[in-house]
């Protein structure tokens, strides 16, 4: 699911904590003639790893809960970063670099649409900018992504929606799986070429089987459903319509 730039903010927070501790150690070192600041220095180094370990543990809990998957991932849409070109660097310093610090083998896929004008024409952007301004912002960030992937091929790869779904030219799709070190099976190849309808996140629902070991040693498996259930989606739609004081058409609730 989308993390709404959460890991960029987490990286920014962690860097700020480490920076403040470094300043504290420097101040103690400058004001103490004896070696009393040494213990603080050692503690700071230990706490530095604590900050990273805590963030790493949280990421695992959120994105790869038990039973753990061999490989896990997540998606971020850098909408706020696209709006502010001056903040593009934070995608790499507080986002990519921070995650690589916690997971050295992490790989990053920068993904966009070749049809930039189609993206910029979205109502999501028209509320804020003219289409030409939005298109210029997308062009700038895409060039930044493209350049980063070219300079860091060991952990970054660039794809487009059109490229990975192109049946005639499968170079990008095959390159993606080579980059990930995964096998591109016929089933996955077929899936990439099947342009199905993408549901809104609130319409998706998933189940996960979680194994639990009781105190007496008995093993039980619970089936847990998360995200929104279809009945919850319909109830939320009715609630939103009621709040706007509109009378819904029956078909709108189906």
From TrEMBL:
| Organism listed in the record | Strombidinopsis acuminata
Recorded protein name is: Sulfotransferase domain-containing protein
InterPro entries reported for this sequence: P-loop_NTPase (IPR027417)
Q: Which domain of life is it from?
A: Eukaryota
